[in-house]
Fold this protein.
Amino acid sequence: FPETGKTVSGRFLEYWLTHGGLAQQGYPISEPFVEVSEVDGKPYLVQYFERAVFEWHPENPPPNDVLLSLLGSFTYNRRYPGR
């Protein structure tokens, strides 16, 4: 994508195309990389987009192998600790 200089491919591209693409997810703002999940402490391949973070969960069969991170929960808990 010339707008961000990032690419999307494989299962992340399939998910992006079938789940709203640019209008829903926005442009990619990172390349895929491995990140340790705050939810279960396991490493997952992730890719950041303007409005979402995709996680590849190879333990799940398609189409459930690409999930969105829990951004709402993470943001809420950081802004309103103890609520």
DSSP finds three helices and four strands in the chain. The two ends are 39 Å apart (CA to CA).
